[in-house]
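hi! just following up on the protien thing from before. the input was this:
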Amino acid sequence: MLGVVNKSAIPFLVIGGISLVLGGVLSAASAGSPSYNSSWAVAYLVLVAGVAQLVLGLGQAGLASRELSPTFLSGEAVVLNLSTIAVLLGTLLATPALTYLGAALLVIALAMFIWAVRGAGRHLPLLLWAFRIMVVVLLVSAPIGLVIAHARTA
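and the predicted 3d structure came back as:
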């Protein structure tokens, strides 16, 4: 299976997959007494840390017109996942500054993904559109999430 997948996608596949599993575990663990925070954390783990990371990692692996250095890929994975950790902790601990830091790191990570696929050919138009749509959804939803998080802590 891994022979078919571009190796540059592996960190995002592994962490994205783990995030999906963690979202499921958290959902099961909190099912007996669900709360706003647990429901929100499950959604964030599944949608942002999981699905978005999978789409971005696979999209980048399929679209990058040049080989990306291991240092760049590691930096991308670290920034993206630090953003997830900061947003989760900032929201769950009602610490807006940490949530804002996480959103800023997300924007930096998205800029890195966009840079990595610059010059992408039109040989995979569906993948290119899925990648672009994911970036736009994340860029639009980040400020909306900040407003909601800020309103809940105010």
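The chain is about 80% helix and 0% strand.
The radius of gyration is 16 Å.
cheers
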